[in-house]
Design a protein that fits this description.
139 residues, 4-stranded antiparallel beta sheet, mainly beta, 0% helix
């Protein structure tokens, strides 16, 4: 495992098997001729998408808020979906091919406690990933 590596050149796969090369967000890999040979070469760059949900009036994290983001290219491909943890955070790793715009919302409804208004989210996901802070207002 290497960090902050930059490499360029031809990637040749003479086997009949596929090769998967995973690189992190701090590395750069460009291939002059990716996928030559009978086997396929897939270059994957994992990035993290992080959403933090906070109470707008107190600044405290909101646990169990529902968050979802979809790729706006088709509005059906999910980028992130689930509930925030005790720190008001939810994250997902995804393969980065190109910068995308993701949209969705965050909300929290608690029948026995405090309810918050739903808020729309919009963010660009780049080679560095994305980090968004959403502040929800109490209803």
């Amino acid at each position: 495992s290497y960090a902050n590596v930059k490499a360029a050149g031809a990637v040749h796969n003479p086997s009949l098997y596929n090769i998967e090369i995973q690189i992190d967000a701090n590395c750069e890999l460009t291939a002059d001729d990716p996928g030559t040979g009978p086997g396929q070469v897939n270059i994957l760059r994992a990035v993290t998408v992080l959403v933090t949900v906070l109470d707008d009036s107190t600044g405290l994290p909101i646990e169990d808020a529902s968050v979802y983001l979809v790729d706006t290219a088709d509005y059906t491909t999910p980028v992130l979906s689930g509930r925030t943890d005790i720190d008001g955070k939810i994250s997902a790793a995804m393969n980065y091919d190109a910068t995308i715009l993701a949209e969705g919302s965050a909300r929290q409804m608690d029948l026995a406690g405090i309810d918050y208004e739903q808020k729309d989210i919009s963010t660009l996901i780049t080679a560095a990933g994305a980090s968004v802070v959403v502040r929800l207002s109490r209803t």
